[in-house]
Structure formats: structure tokens, C-alpha cells
Amino acid sequence: MPRGVSPKREHEFEKLKHQFQHDHRYPGREEEVAARIVNKQRREAGEIKSSSDSSSGHANSGGRGSSASSKSSSASTSANAHASNPGLSVKEYAGLTIPEVTSRLGSLSLSQIRRLRDYELAHKHRKGMLEKLNRQLVH
User: Fold this and answer.
1) Domain ranges of the chain
2) Which among 74, 71, 93 is positioned nearest to 83, based on CA atoms?
3) How many helical (H) and strand (E) elements, i.e. helices and strands, does the chain have?
């Protein structure tokens, strides 16, 4: 696991690795598969960036590189389509990490935050980002 991973993710990694060993699944690849699962969870939770981090790790993984690059390509196309979207008040929102967006929330109106939340629900589905946006709407 990479340095700086939370204890929760490290525990999940160890638990998966031991479970795979116990069940004789993925012989010789238990650590690799456990790491991939935990890293996917981290990406989906917005704990790491997804575009460049995910495509580089899959390039040599038995033909999966093409699907990873096509996902990356469609993600960048989606990001470009919404980068200058006048309905979103945060410039290039689709390409920003949760901390980058959070640092800009204080200067936004409630209606602007609602639009960001609606966009997040329709496109990215980052649980951490949705929690932060909903928290801003309540306060």
C-alpha cells in the first residue's frame, strides 16, 4: 500500500489479502488484487485522483489497458464538456479533487452549491464530496 494510506484502508487491504489466502483465491496475486480493490475504493471515495493514477497502473495488466484508457478518455471528454459549463460556478469542477472544491465552497451561494451537488449526483457520485456539499446546504 502507498505511504499515507489511512489505517482504515490498510486494515481493509490486510483483511482482503488474508481472506484471499485463506480461500486459496488468486494464488500468488493476493496482495496485488487486494491493493487494486482498496485503491479502487479510495478513488471512488475521492481520496486519490482517478484520471492519471488509474490508467498508468493498468497498462500492462493483460489487455485491461485499453478499457482503462477508454474510461480515462471518456472521463476527460466529460470533463472537457463541463469544464466551462456556465451553470457551474467552480471553473473546471469535473477535474478538481474534493479538497480543491472544498476550499472554494465558502464563496458560493446556496443556489451555486445546489447546482454543484446536482452535477455531482449526475456525474461523479463522490460520497465525500456529496457529504460536504450537503453540509454546506444545511448550515
Assistant:
1) 45-138
2) 93
3) 7, 0
